[in-house]
Amino acid sequence: MPVEIVTIPCLSDNYAFLVHDDQSGQTALIDVPEARPILKALQDRGWSLSEVWITHHHADHVQGLADVLKTHPAKVRGSQTDAHRLPDLDIAHQDGDRFTFSDHEVQVMDVSGHTIGHICYYVPSAKAVFTADSLMALGCGRLFEGTAEQMWRSLSKLAKLPPDTNVCSGHEYTAANAKFALTIDPDNPELISRSKEISAARASDTPTVPSSLALELATNPFLRASSPEIRARLNMEEAPDVDIFAEIRARKDAF
């Protein structure tokens, strides 16, 4: 049975996600930016929380956890590498771990770069990967702790997932990311079209997350280091892919 995924806007520009299996009644929560909208989403649907999957330690992804657990005691999962600065975990995961959520396999992937120990959760049966601040809609997380090499390795790992995978990322940064992407890849027709769609969506306060991996591969400059057009625009035709990525990331930081 397919699962239902609910996108929950939190704070000013964060997202949390609920993953619900109707047959078993189990529900997982990915990241906890704040409690109120998450508790409302659960109450509105009559769902009880079974598990919480944390991606990384930043406050805007964990600070609502204690209040959610008061109402919905649940098993908490997170990164073993990050455990020393996460809320208390019931289960600590490493890269490559697999676990079962209501008969659905979940694969844990280390995607360090934004932070060290950042993980994502890939649910093949749901065609969804919960990437938080690693791969984002038309972007990627700023390198607060990791290196360009680490982030490029993480993005390359995610890029190998099936193209029809939905990328459930952690922030509504897409409009700003689109403006930047057009400075890197201005003649990309799919990016131009996507940028217009993003503007229309945000004008009506419609989330632009999730997005498909196929769309990210076609339009997200942080995944397109091998593009001849981007390489020519950067005057880096012969550079390794990781150097192209690092240059794009540096330009975005200064944008």
Question: Would you write up a description of this structure?
Answer:
The protein has 255 residues and is an alpha/beta fold. Helices cover 34% and strands 24% of the residues. The protein has 9 helices and 14 strands. The strands form 3 sheets. The protein has a 6-stranded mixed beta sheet with strand order 1-2-3-4-5-6, covered by helices on one side. It has a 6-stranded mixed beta sheet with strand order 7-8-9-10-13-14. α1 runs parallel beside α3, α4 crosses α9 and α5 runs antiparallel to α6. It is globular and about 55 Å long. The protein starts with a strand and ends with a helix.
Which helices and strands appear, and what pairs or packs with what?
Blueprint: E1 4-10, E2 14-20, E3 27-30, H1 35-45, E4 51-53, H2 59-62, H3 65-71, E5 75-79, E6 91-93, E7 98-101, E8 104-110, E9 119-123, E10 128-132, E11 135-136, E12 139-140, H4 148-159, E13 166-169, H5 174-184, H6 189-203, E14 211-212, H7 213-219, H8 228-233, H9 241-253
Parallel strand pairs: 3-4, 4-5, 5-6, 10-13
Antiparallel strand pairs: 1-2, 2-3, 7-8, 8-9, 9-10, 11-12, 13-14
Most strands sheet: 6 strands, mixed
Given helix and strand content, the structural type is alpha/beta
Per DSSP E runs of 2 or more residues, the count of β-strands stands at 14
> Using only CA atoms, what is the Rg?
18 Å
The helix/strand order is EEEHEHHEEEEEEEEHEHHEHHH
